[in-house]
Amino acid sequence: MSVKAIDLVTHSKESLDFFVGKCNEDFRADATLSLYQKIITKHREANDIKSLINDDDFIKLIHSTLRAWDMDQRGARMACVEDFSRSVRNYTENLAELYNYKLYDDIFDDLSEIKRMLKPVFLNLKVMESTRKIVGVSKVLHFLLPDLIMPIDGKFTLNGVFGYNKNSKDHDEEFKTFCEVLDRFYEIKERLDLGPEDVDGEQWNQSVPKLIDNALIGFLVAESEEISAFLEANRQ
Fold first, then answer.
1. Single pTM value for the model
2. Contact of 40 with 46, CB cutoff 8 Å
3. Residue 198, CA distances (Å) to 51, 206, 223, 227 in order
4. What is the pLDDT of residues 180-206, one digit of tens each?
5. CA-based nearest residue to 165, from 173, 153, 157, 154
6. Dist. CA 50–CA 39, nearest whole Å
7. Helix pair 134-144, 111-124: axis angle to 10 deg
8. Collapsing DSSP states into helix, strand and coil, what is residue 41?
9. Is 130 left (phi over 0), alpha (psi -120 to 50) or beta?
10. 128 forms bridges with which residues in the sheet?
11. Partners of residue 78 on adjacent β-strands
């Protein structure tokens, strides 16, 4: 079995820290980061998902951030903000219940219930006009549930976890893939004992799920010589 990027970047806490650092050094620090930090700040200040969902400005902020994260170009087209807002608000109760769960908590026995509540949200959120759901929906779920759900894309996450950009036109299959990534992130959290104390709030380090995502980004943006030197020094 070939070693995946996620195996290397989460081999140890030292590996995670190194690749998270590379993400924060070399990944874009522009309006995309500023918008993302605004979303997280609103969560930390409100700590109430219902009030945020009912805040038109917050919903528009998520929509704008998705556009800044390149979700409305290269052939992809986002749903209009009105349709997007309506679909999010249709699942306020599911999201409010899910808001109680954090990836850094001991939620192993709750994962089946969490997935049960997530499934209708995942399948029915109106994020993109295109067929594929996992990228747009996972990003929205991360913006709504930043301490539980990880943002997923093909370049970093799916390539990093599976070794290729795992894709499907079947939405149930996409949800299955989403759950596989969630399971893997939870396993990493458990193995490395990650918690809020590991999140310093600097740059992209805004939640435990995002830390793991950052490490995958850091692996891709790092120079091959840097990776080789680190792995050699740490004998991985």
1. 0.94
2. no
3. 27, 10, 25, 22
4. 999 999 999 999 999 999 999 999 999
5. 154
6. 14
7. 120
8. helix
9. beta
10. 78
11. 128
